[in-house]
Each structure stands twice: as structure tokens, then as C-alpha cells.
Design brief:
The chain is of the alpha/beta class. Helix content is 38%, strand content 13%. Helix 11 (288-301) links the parallel strand 7 and strand 8.
Length: 495
């Protein structure tokens, strides 16, 4: 049997070269082309074939040649005919239908020789399997409460822009993104996050990961030294590694990134990646003194600061913390934000606030990478914010996540009070449950995944040797009803 595969649309032709100068008859060339396409799995089992009349017209040959080829393929069992429906690729091949071994086979007999490839991705390929990412459910990181998103409102806005699209939505756009969204974002960031910016400084990107990649391409050369938080966000480390940067892990304590330790470890970095409003993964907030210290250091050394503000809208003990960028008077901060956590990940919309003098460089790199971001959802998101839906959604979700956070903290203290210490529960959509006894968190996370708990081990967030072991528990996508039972199952795993 041919293994299950995604079928091409009915009537799509495989690539068949018809050579009129060849001594082989046209029907034989067509027969060989279809047989090879089936054996090489370029045509899937049960896929509908075009009519002989249509195929003859498409290839510009006699229908008789097509009929002769189809008859031979039917006789040999590669095609099957269904009365009233047409001709289809057979759902089972005859025994002798093996991959072709002649010179015409393109895919199954390749014996590739040595390949020269970049060494950059090699470090990413050496990672160990991560079963805590294999499923969706209790404690899965970066999950949000999708079932509480206002889909009806969002759908109506999508329909509005799809039925009567502006011409600008259908044409090539600029590398910075849709101007109305950038103006809306500038107003929002100035008001809600204390960011100093104008629309001309904002670039719309495909999430914060692309923002980090763009920043690395613009600001860094191979061999550039970069501070990263320890523990910190592995996605940022991956991007910086691919850019050829030399990473220096700088410890995070109760006040955030330890600037003094960074200076001692690497006194002249080209850039610093930091999550000051809600440190990932420990959840601490960088103190005012540390922020000023970091900004002063960046000014004196000419270093860039990549401020990754990935989920600062959700705080439960106080108002949202103003951005580090708002304190910057020397244009050293590149501010990065995303809608993946506050709306939904598949939206793939984020943004960068770029120092004004760097805008042409960012725009040039962006245009070389993918020209411009898709426009439809930018227009939808603009209306979603301008019409007040975004603000209402944030308020509702802040209350819902506060409830889930409190339930999770209470359940941990009730069921696992002596085993786990809760860290970073004041904000965001996750917390850290640090192990209070000596144990390795990775085997625990593997066992938890076997029980349907997608808890991420804290140790994988370290670039060097982990100084703490624990579990990073996301509660954004875990319902209030699920949390108590999920913590009881986690207790079984631990004990």
C-alpha cells in the first residue's frame, strides 16, 4: 500500500517532460512520466487524474497518445477507473512497482555526496528531546486562554477587511509595516508602557523571535560579545548563536540582571539581551537602580540593549511596570513586543521600537529578508485596538489569569508545600516551582509528561551549569477547573 500522504488538488499535473525530438513515442513518454511520479510518491494514492481530453490540450499532444498511455497504466495497475467519477491513482501498487533504478529516477535513487553547510545550526541539532513540548494541556508554557478570546468580534473584523479590501492591503507594502497599525501601536506604547516612540520608529514583525533575529543581523557581527540572562530565554540564545555571537551568561538575582557581575565577566559587550519587566523564567522585576545602572553602562560602553517585553501587560500585585526604554536618553535600547501572549500565538504579529538613527538599517535588512509583513491581519488588529476590543480583552484576561495564578499557588502550597518554592508569581502567565531538595528536574519533567503534565524543567533555561532545579509551570492555558487535579498528579510524580 502507498503510505498516507497529503494529496495535491485534483487535476494537478506532475512535471512530465514531453520531448518531441526524442525517438520515444509520446504515449511512452507520458506513461514513463506518470509511472515515475506514482512510484516516487509525487502522486498520492487515490488522487484524481485530469481527463484525457484536458491533459491532451494541456500538453499540446494528440488525445490518442494520452489514451494509449492511460490504457497501459490501467492495465498494469497504476491507475484505476471509477464509473461516473473518472480515473484515479490506484490505492495499492502491484508487487513489481518498486522505485525506479534507471537514470530517470530523481528522488529515490539519489546518493548525495559531501555537502558544505553552515556550522551555525549544529548546536541547535544537538538538543535532547523535549517531551514537555509534545502536547497541549496543564502547565504548557506560552499557552494562553484561547477559548476566552473574542472570536466573534475578531471574525467580524476579518470579514470586514476581506469583503471590501482597501487596495493598499492587496499590494506590496513597506518593510516597516502597515502605517495605521504603527500609529496605533505608538499611541498604545506611549500610554500603557511608557515607551518613547513615534510611528516612524516602529516596525511590525512576525513575533518577537523575528524581532530578535532582525536586531542580531543589524547590530552584531560574528564574534560579537553579548550578555544573556542566566537563567534566560533559550529562543534568544538560539538567534544570537546563529548570528555567530559569543554569549556570556550573566546571573539574575532578586533585583534582575546583575550588572556588576556582567561587567566583571565581560566588560565590553556589543549587546545585552534582557527581560526587565518580567524576567524569563524567574519572573523577577528589574529594580530601578539596576535599570539606571544598565543604561549608564550601555551609554559609556556603546552597547545595545535588547529589551524583550514579552508579556508585561499581565501584573497582579501592581500596575504594569514602565518599559526600560522609557528611561533611555541615549537611544541605546531596542524595544521588542509581541501579541502572541495577549491575543493568540498563531497571529504572528510583534513589533520593534527602533532608535531613530537605526531605522534605515533595520528597514534595509527587513526588505532583504522578506520584503514586508502580511497586511490583512495588521489592518484587523488596528481596528481591534482602535475600537476598544483590545483593552476590554486585556482587562478580562488579567482577571482570569489572576484567578488561575492564585489557584495554582494555593494548590502547590497545599499539596507540595515542603517540596516546591514558588517564584515569580506576581505577573505573567507562568511561575517557577523550584525544588527545595536535591533532585534533577529533567527526569521529573519527562515523568510528568507521561501523565499529561507539560511542565518545563528550569535547568534547560541555563546556558552554563544550573544553580537551581525546578519546574516552569504555565497557567495561561490551564483552566481553573483543571489546576487542583493537575497539581495532585504532579505530587504523585514528585513523590
Amino acid at each position: 500500500m502507498i503510505p498516507a500522504m497529503k494529496k495535491a488538488a485534483a487535476g494537478i499535473l506532475p512535471v512530465i517532460a514531453i520531448d518531441r525530438s526524442s525517438p520515444a513515442p509520446l504515449y511512452k513518454q507520458l506513461y514513463d512520466g506518470y509511472r515515475e511520479a506514482i512510484v516516487d510518491r509525487r502522486l498520492g494514492a487515490g488522487q484524481r487524474l485530469p481527463s484525457t481530453r484536458g491533459l491532451a490540450a494541456e500538453l499540446g499532444i494528440s488525445r490518442i497518445s494520452v489514451l494509449n498511455a492511460f490504457e497501459q497504466l490501467l492495465a498494469e495497475g497504476y491507475f484505476e477507473s471509477r464509473v461516473g467519477s473518472g480515473t484515479f491513482v490506484t490505492t495499492s501498487l502491484p508487487e513489481e512497482a518498486k522505485p525506479l533504478t534507471g537514470s530517470s529516477s530523481r528522488s529515490t535513487t539519489l546518493r548525495p555526496g559531501p555537502r558544505a553547510v553552515s556550522r551555525g545550526p549544529a548546536a541547535l541539532l544537538r538538543r535532547q528531546p523535549a517531551p514537555w513540548l509534545d502536547g497541549a494541556g496543564a502547565f504548557r508554557m506560552s499557552e494562553c486562554a484561547i477559548d476566552h478570546f473574542p472570536f466573534q468580534v475578531w471574525s467580524s473584523l476579518v470579514v470586514r477587511h476581506s469583503r471590501n479590501p482597501q487596495r493598499g492591503l492587496m499590494k506590496y507594502g513597506g518593510p516597516m509595516g502597515w502605517r495605521p497599525l504603527r500609529e496605533t501601536l505608538a499611541a498604545y506604547l506611549r500610554t500603557a508602557r511608557g515607551v518613547r516612540c513615534e510611528a516612524d520608529q516602529i516596525m511590525v514583525v512576525s513575533g518577537s523571535q523575528q524581532a530578535l533575529e532582525l536586531s542580531a543581523r543589524v547590530l552584531l557581527d560574528p564574534g560579537s560579545s553579548v550578555w544573556v540572562e542566566e537563567p534566560g530565554y533559550s529562543g534568544a540564545r538560539d538567534v544570537l548563536t546563529l548570528a555567530g555571537a559569543r554569549l556570556f551568561p550573566i546571573p539574575v538575582d532578586a533585583e534582575g540582571l546583575d550588572v556588576a557581575a556582567g561587567i566583571a565577566r565581560c566588560p565590553r559587550p556589543q549587546a545585552v539581551h534582557v527581560t526587565p519587566s518580567h524576567q524569563y523564567p524567574l519572573g523577577v522585576t528589574m529594580t530601578a537602580s539596576r535599570r539606571l545602572q544598565l543604561l549608564d553602562f550601555a551609554r559609556r560602553r556603546g552597547a545595545w540593549i535588547l529589551e524583550d517585553d514579552y508579556d508585561s501587560e499581565y501584573r497582579y500585585e501592581s500596575l504594569p511596570i514602565s518599559a526600560l526604554q522609557g528611561l533611555d536618553r541615549d537611544s541605546r535600547v531596542v524595544y521588542i513586543g509581541t501579541f502572541s501572549k495577549v491575543l493568540f500565538p498563531a497571529l504572528r504579529v510583534g513589533y520593534i521600537v527602533i532608535p531613530a538613527d537605526l531605522v534605515p538599517r533595520f528597514a534595509a535588512v527587513r526588505e532583504a529578508m522578506d520584503i514586508f509583513p502580511p497586511t490583512l491581519y495588521q489592518a484587523v488588529l488596528t481596528d481591534f485596538i482602535d475600537e476598544g476590543h483590545f483593552g476590554r480583552h486585556l482587562r478580562r484576561m488579567r482577571q482570569r489569569y489572576r484567578e488561575r495564578r492564585s489557584l495554582l499557588v494555593d494548590a502547590i502550597r497545599k499539596e507540595l508545600g515542603d517540596d516546591l518554592e514558588v517564584l515569580g508569581a506576581q505577573a505573567g502567565m507562568h511561575l517557577v516551582a523550584a525544588l527545595s531538595y536535591k533532585a534533577h528536574d529533567r527526569p521529573i519533567a519527562v515523568r510528568a509528561a507521561g501523565k499529561g503534565l507539560w511542565a518545563m524543567p528550569l535547568s534547560i533555561c541555563y546556558l552554563g551549569r544550573p544553580t537551581r532545579q525546578g519546574l516552569v509551570l504555565g497557567y495561561g492555558g490551564t483552566s481553573a477547573k483543571e489546576i487542583p487535579e493537575a497539581v495532585r498528579r504532579l505530587r504523585e510524580v514528585l513523590r
